[in-house]
Design brief:
2 copies of one chain form a homodimer. Chain A has 12 helices and 10 strands. In chain A, strand 1 and strand 2 form a beta hairpin. At the A-B interface, strand 4, strand 5, strand 6 and helix 10 of A face strand 4, strand 5, strand 6 and helix 10 of B.
Chain lengths: 348, 348
DNA sequence: GTTTAGCACTCTATCTCTCTGAGTGCTAAA
DNA sequence: TTTAGCACTCAGAGAGATAGAGTGCTAAAC
């Protein structure tokens, strides 16, 4: 049985009201707040049917209705209208991202912070997935004898560095040369194809320094770990504490379950990855309540979207909020931030 | 009126019991759990006096007593015995910090993580206060035309980098030369004495590249911002979510107040700084309940201590937990972690 | 067939009342 | 100074009672 027009309106109104007040919506209240041209009894019939079809739930017999996960799903899929961000709000976000960012990490940090402030929920920003990106530069900088800073620059604009230890007696020149050799041999190679072996052959094919093999291998191993480490995703998450002010998390147990999960960056990042793959074609990904396979997030909704770096490599930003979230607003906010990121990263 | 021996014992027993159970302690329960050789009536008299002197409080007339801030203070100042860490626990911490850390940031991250795991409370680790440290190296690395990575190395072992934008047409050599000139002119200079002017004079006194003044100034300005940015304290904080399982934070409002404050790294860092100055001579700093001037932390206690880098520059690590904290255990844990850090950073 | 008025019914939240028990403070004796 | 004894206090738990929001159903109206 499909939803007739009035039922759609009723569902939409109930979601809207519940989002606003976090209180079960009754037929009377619905009539009061909206211009239905029918009586409350009619709405009651509609609501009973909507419940039977699984779109609504009752906390108990004599309460109003609240949307089920399926109800929210219908709402975001076909009922809500995503309105454009108000000029004012767009301006606010723009301002927060207006500082010049020449490193992707700072941009993402700012984006996550803006998103958290603007939505009032938990924001998320992840560095680009690097497996598909490639090495553009590798510099080895001697900080003091025996200590070398390996700077790895990736095509996605990601810069990472790692301090490594090498034998004391190597000179800055020798180390820099090895770095150059590796860089020449590997630049342009996708990260996924870089292994200890490729590093070694690259270096040995290009370098001019005469060094015993064992020694050279030691340095190369450190360079390799530095490159591999650059592969790690960074996750920026902000605004967690705001969830505590929501009525759905007034129960500490629930909040704890949520925070426990969120404290594992890796879990969240992995989940975002998975969802992104599932909804590859879509502009944004939404997961509602039980649809989320992360523990402790069954009272939440999760919205993510993908930004692009130079049209190729992509990372994610997103928002985690209560199921009772202002979906259309959050979506437009996320979209706006994504556009801003895309724009800033388009310049080569 | 000073505390006689039995009163001290009573206070100590009450703190111990309350720490263990988070329930007001009555005279009867006290007799049951401890070997006082007197009757409950005698203890009642003692407890009444302790209350009058401000060491104990009553939640209401017919409940047991709980320690007041003053009571906790007396406890940590003269009653508790700081026991040595168990070998087992020492081993666990050692293990967590056993990876080789050649960058101070990673070491602190690991330390904070170990401290949070081990205490079950909120841990804190801050990079060294850098004002007293000095610049040892400054490298400028061209990533692509117009984009330069400025790597700043400070005496405290802190390495920071910042991507900056410069005019497109400058070459790697030119940029590197400017970097060298700045480094030569400034190395050894305390950060506090580095200003845009000192940077400029340093560079102009040492550099050989012929560049129009305006252009040079632009590059120098970027180098200067990079140096100044290296000055920022980094704060690593972990284990916040654990507080939600404590009965004192079962009220979400309270938890929210705490988290609100803790989400401002700067506030916390500033406070730690202040406290450290006040208790300069002490091995560790303790602030209890209302003694803490940060909003939302009046149900908490704050313990910090100072680690050293090469005997000179110093940073802080610490723990935030409920007033009802296992003080002696936490103190020995913090001390142990500090010793580990000191040791790892002693090697030049 | 759809809509509506009317009404009995259900269930939570709230309030009040009572009871219980842990714990106190005080008094008087040891 | 310590102790036994006892009256007193108060939070918390449990039991009704009540109010009110909301429901579902029936029968009439459109």
């Amino acid at each position: 049985m499909a939803l007739d027009n009035r039922k759609k309106e009723v569902l939409q109104a109930i979601v809207d009201d519940y989002v606003a007040n976090c209180e079960p919506v009754g037929s009377k209240a619905l009539i009061d707040r909206h211009d239905f041209m029918v009586s409350s009894a009619t709405l009651r019939n509609d609501m009973a049917e909507l419940e039977q079809m699984g779109y609504l739930e009752k906390p108990h017999t004599s309460a109003g209705r609240i949307p089920s996960d399926k109800g929210y799903r219908e709402y975001v899929d076909s009922l809500m209208k995503v309105d454009k961000l108000s000029d004012e709000e767009g301006k606010e976000i723009k301002e927060k991202l207006s500082v010049s960012f020449d490193e992707i990490a700072s941009l993402l940090k700012a984006a996550s912070s803006a998103l958290a402030d603007q939505t009032g929920y938990i924001s998320l920003a992840m560095t680009p997935k690097l497996t598909s990106s490639y090495l553009t530069q590798l510099k080895m900088l001697m900080i003091e004898p025996g200590k070398v800073l390996v700077v790895v620059v990736l095509s996605a604009g990601v810069v990472k560095n790692r301090m490594v230890r090498i034998p004391d007696f190597l000179t800055q020149d020798q180390v820099a040369q090895i770095g150059n050799a590796v860089e020449q041999g590997l630049s342009g190679l996708p990260l996924s194809e870089i292994s200890l072996i490729t590093v070694a052959t690259a270096a040995k094919g290009n370098q001019k320094v005469e060094l015993p093999d064992a020694l050279l291998n030691q340095v190369l191993y450190e360079a390799y770990t530095a490159i591999k480490q650059a592969d790690n995703l960074d996750v920026y998450m902000q605004g967690k504490h705001r969830m505590l002010s929501l009525p759905e998390f007034s129960d500490t147990k629930r909040a704890q379950g949520l925070f426990d999960t969120l404290s594992h960056d890796g879990l969240v990042a992995g989940y975002v990855d998975e969802v992104t793959k599932q909804d590859e074609k879509k502009e944004y990904m939404i997961r509602i309540g039980q649809e989320i396979t992360l523990e402790g997030l069954d009272e939440c909704s999760f919205i993510t979207t993908t930004y692009n770096v130079g049209g190729k490599v992509a990372g994610n930003i997103g928002v985690i909020g209560p199921k009772r979230m202002e979906y259309s607003k959050v979506i437009s906010q996320i979209n706006f931030v994504r556009m801003m990121i895309d724009e800033k990263l388009k310049q080569p």
